[in-house]
Hints:
The termini are far apart. The protein is an all-alpha fold. The chain has helices spanning 5-33, 37-48, 61-81, 85-115, 117-121, 125-130. Among the domains are: 1-48; 93-145, no CATH class.
Amino acid sequence: xxxxxPLSTAADLAVLGLLxxxxxxxxRLSTRAGVPAILVFLVVGIxxxxxxxxxxxxADYQLAFRIGTVALAMIxxxxxxxxxxxxxxxxxxxxAVLATLGVLLTALLVAVPRAWPGVCCAWSARARRFRRPxxxxxxxxxxxx
Length: 145
């Protein structure tokens, strides 16, 4: 059912206000309960969505991308403003080590099996069971061309 224009905008603003009130209330509730706020926000968002009880259908992916980008920028900006210089200095060395080793380990875990699929997959139970390399069992769409 489609509402006429003034009522449609009023309904959209009322739903937005209700969701904001739920977000504030769930934030306080999550602090008291010891549950991460992001988990509560996800549950509220899922329940408000098209598959939940809210039934809000949202299919504008470009707008969702823009909103997500602005939200990420605000989160990073807030995190930067609320981080003390001493805390940043203490976390710089472990962060650099974790970032460097994480990238190196991820590259090795992804590149080595990709470069030699028969060798790396030959140890798997599936390869032993069928007595063939896993690379033959990979669908054609995922094979290197």
